[in-house]
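Q: Could you fold this chain for me?
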Amino acid sequence: MSAHKWQFASRFRRHAFGWRSDTPVQRIKEAIAEIKQVARKEPVLAAEGAITLLEKLSPALEQVDSSSGALGSAVNKAIETLVPLIAKADVDTPLRQRWLERLWQALQDDEMPYIELLGDYWGELCVTPELASHWADEFLPLVEHVWSRTASGHGFFKGTSACLASLYAAGRHQELLALIDKAPFKWWHDRRWGVKALSAMGKKAEAIRYAEDSRGLNDPGWQIAQDCEAILLSSGLLDEAYRRYALEANQGTTHLATFRAISKKYPNKQPEEILRDLIASTPRAEGKWFAAAKDAGLFVVAAELATRSPTDPRTLTRAARDFAEKHPDFALAAGLAALHWISHGYGYEITGVDVLDAYSAVTQAAHGAGVPTQRINEQIREMTAGTQPGNSLMRTMLARHLSE
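A: Sure. Below is the predicted structure, expressed as structure tokens.
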């Protein structure tokens, strides 16, 4: 194994990269692909390669500008991918212990830091409860020292997460809870291990109370909600999980993603019920759920949302164009709503092209719905008769169409 020449190794020399993050992100992806390719036939060799990469990451990346977050995300993704490869390799305890010693040294040398997330996986890396217990004993005195009232500084030790993870993996749940109680601050990053310990002990109601007691100004409420939701779901309490945590625990990058995540997790709930609850959670911003309603085939609800509160005109125009034939009544409502919100000045950098696109979608939908163009033009003339901020642009762009 030691004679294997990894292609990525030479690319991750100390200070190998400048300040730009695009190249190292690409190199990390290439290294992971190389290791995964080897893992198909030689899992132990792949584990060695994974450890080598983790050792080299921080020294190679020290000079890179990570302010965009792209590099940090790439490194975290690498850790999430490589840890299972290391854990699954079938090796004896002495070799795994040497691997862990190398990884611990890499964590200690992680100055920036980049690979600190590795500590959260320490129990998984130990594989056996016996090895996890050994490492817990190694870390425990130092954690107790930095968390003692007489300790100077801010109670920081790079092995804290690894210690908590090791105690959990070793099944030493009471010790884990007692240790967390000594922490100088209520920090969710530590207390989540207490939630895990209580759940493993079968004390699920107590675990939820423990998690709720962890909330504070700087704590990630959505992560706490996710853990509480998972406990209730594992107990078969779907209705309670939905009522208490579903909305907070499943926030996606878009409103549509949030709706899909909740719908997938709670198949016992009707899509319209979920959507109505989501709409109620964002008063005066109901239009943001338009795409979710459309995606669920709730066209009456979608049309209602488009008229209740501001909705992105381009989103409405696309819907009008896409459904002009299959659902012309809905498409017509969406297209008219697009023009309505444009007339009121909504939409990012709306241009004359956007106005013409919306009008074209409206006329196409009107034809499918059997509505005369003359009636549509009358509605638009009434729409643009006032002094709303977007009316001047609309009157200019649609002057020829409205005069016919």
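A (continued): The chain has a mean pLDDT of 94.
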